[in-house]
Design goal:
With 260 residues, this protein is an alpha/beta fold. It folds into 2 domains: 2-71 and 149-225 and 232-259, Rossmann fold (3-Layer(aba) Sandwich); 79-148, no CATH class. The chain contains 10 helices and 10 strands. Strands 6-7-8-3-9-10 form a 6-stranded mixed β-sheet, with helices on both faces. It has a 4-stranded antiparallel β-sheet with strand order 2-1-4-5, covered by helices on one side.
């Protein structure tokens, strides 16, 4: 679905990305984690077509990304700025569907169905300012669900909510990926989160960033916030990712790209 090859980018004399290469298969959820300031958000903006990288190539569904693709959606960290406060939840979700040429009735049906899938079936008439932070982020996820993108990008989507809501939203994303076969690239600074939600965890080095490791989680699709985090496999991988983020070296080089 997504192939990134030798991606580089500089802001003036400062090189942020030093040649990042990774791939995301259809229906896969890949977490990207790395040290603060290593260029994770720059990578995401490049994939979204919001930023023209200095060099390298990005291919989405076999086509080069030269502008924002029509079949792509983004969920940002700051939910308070990603929803229009003068629109109801249902209208916020339905808005992007105009690009698909759907009439008003079909847009409304798709919006209400998506809100139901994220547990907000009764909140369609509410405005963002009437909702908690977690509810607002659920609306953002519903908007992406309704649009049915080929690729969903998530930029630290749970960083602005409390711990309990964060866990609920992590499980929501796992359910979305499982039931809709959605392809997701998730940027996060949280090591535990990267392991818990990901089919793979891609670890970036400090800038100029390259891929330090591409690790399979092998935790299965059915995960639980308590039981999964107690598994030996989770604990070992979480420790390995933590060492890599802090500049260590992988003890088990399980790069998916190397296997391919």
């Amino acid at each position: 679905m997504l192939t990134i090859t030798d991606l580089v980018h500089s802001y003036g004399p400062h090189r942020v990305l030093g040649g990042v290469s990774l791939s995301v298969a259809e229906g896969e959820l890949v977490s990207v984690v790395g040290p603060s300031g290593c260029g994770k958000s720059t990578l995401l903006r490049s994939v979204a077509g919001l930023l023209k990288p200095s060099g390298g190539r990005i291919m989405l569904a076999g086509r080069p990304v030269e502008r924002t693709p029509d079949d792509l959606a983004i969920v940002f960290q700051d939910y308070s700025r990603s929803l229009f406060p003068w629109m109801s939840a249902a209208n916020n979700v339905a808005l992007p569907l105009r690009r698909k040429g759907l009439d008003r009735r079909r847009r409304r049906e798709a919006a209400m169905s998506a809100l139901d899938q994220v547990g907000l079936a009764d909140a369609g008439a509410k405005y963002p300012w009437e909702m908690s932070g977690g509810m607002q982020q659920r609306v953002s996820i519903a908007r992406a669900l309704a649009y049915r993108p080929s690729l969903l990008l998530m930029d630290e989507p749970f960083g602005s909510v409390d711990a309990q809501t964060r866990e609920d939203l992590e499980d929501l994303v796992l359910n979305v990926c499982a039931h809709h076969g959605m392809t997701i690239l998730l940027i996060t600074h949280d090591i535990d989160e990267s392991v818990y939600v990901g089919d793979r965890v891609v670890v970036l080095t400090r800038s100029p960033a390259v891929v330090a490791a591409d690790l399979e989680t092998r935790l299965g699709r059915s995960r639980d916030q308590i039981a999964t985090r107690q598994l030996d496999a989770f604990v070992r991988l979480r420790a390995e990712v933590g060492r890599l983020v802090r500049g260590g070296h992988t003890t088990e080089p399980t790069s998916v790209l190397e296997k391919q």
